User: What shape does this take?
Amino acid sequence: MPGSDFGSPVGPGKESTVFKDRSEAARLLAERLAGYRGKNPLVLAVPRGAVPMGRIIADALGAELDVVLVRKLRAPDNPEFAIGSVDETGWAFVADHAARAGATQDYIEREKAHQLSLIRARRARYTPVRPPIDPQSRVVIVVDDGLATGATMISALHGLRQRKPQKLICAVPVAPPETVERVARYCDEMVCLEQPWNFYAVGQFYRHFPQVDDAEVIQALAGNERRADNL
Assistant: This one.
């Protein structure tokens, strides 16, 4: 895709970068995205792990920060295995393997409804005094701490596209090459620092990869108010 920066695939026998932590990965992404500084971009982070990263990127670019809320659809009898994802608008991405995992259409509809209720609760918790920031006619940078299948990011990008951003960018530190290729179809620019072939899990590429809690998310989002006070 023209204008995209996929990074270089890391083949067998070559070592891929292991980031110290999410903060280091965010600073490296901010450097790659420096061309958008001063263009009033909107950084949208996937909770929870990517939100502190989004704060670092937003501060570096002089951007606003918000969350983009997406939930995975869980396989029957295996909640850790994703069969797709659903975004805040209710649009769902259902993977080809969903039926093989035992997910009927009725099951998928029930799972969508359950995950949408969690999305609504999370929005009320994270931004209780304001609506989501409108991405229309803005450069929108969607950030996650890494992609595995890309299902969550695809739902996020699809939902945002309907809201008519000026430009839609996906920015992640790490993802396998086939996922980068798949997700790039849903955005205008794909920025991925590392594309390892030996990908098993996102946390494999971080030395320090702790869970991020809701308090950290709320604190990161509060940076918008501090930024506004300083303008």
Remarks:
- Residues 105-126 form the longest helix (22 residues).
- Residues 10-14 have pLDDT under 50 and may be disordered.
- The two ends are 36 Å apart (CA to CA).
